Amino acid sequence: ENYEGENDFTACARFLWSNKALYLRLEVRDDAFRPLTNAAANSLDGDYFLLRFVHETAGPEAKAEPFQLVLAPDPTQGTCAVTVEAGEISKARIGQPQARLLKGKANEYAIILEVPTNAWQDPPRKNRLLRFQIISGDADTEALPQHVFAAFPPTDISIPLARTTGALHFVGTFWVKMLPAQARFDDPVATLL
After folding, report:
1. How far apart are CA 133 and CA 165, in angstroms?
2. What is the SS3 assignment for 25?
């Protein structure tokens, strides 16, 4: 409702991994920015990205409960705050994720997220898998309803967005295969950063 297409809001995600970190680059186009007013994952309001990670054969700890990162971009200030919601997982295992915001053309920006994995019990390695979901919120004005998008939307509307996931299959040295879309992002780290 009230979504006006690609010029209103679009985002493209790329993942990379190394022996020390998992990297995410989000390329964003947004015609109207509204800052996040609350960074708690259960009551997000404003422009945000919620990343949810679930251990499969890779992750900080082999627990059923996921950990979440809330990214609060502010292209007017050139910043992106990161809030960690660890649940039952030790925050020391998750580490201190860092995000940078790179301004692009008018209404465009990129977010570079680095999630350290050197303290993970099961860090990214060849043939390991990490389940994830990316949920984005686009709030143009207080008067209009917020648009919410998911990288992996549920097939049944009774299932919450946060309960559906895709998978990062760690293969090769520096690129990640993203399923179910079968998209491959094999840019070198230098291009990502």
Report:
1. 5
2. strand
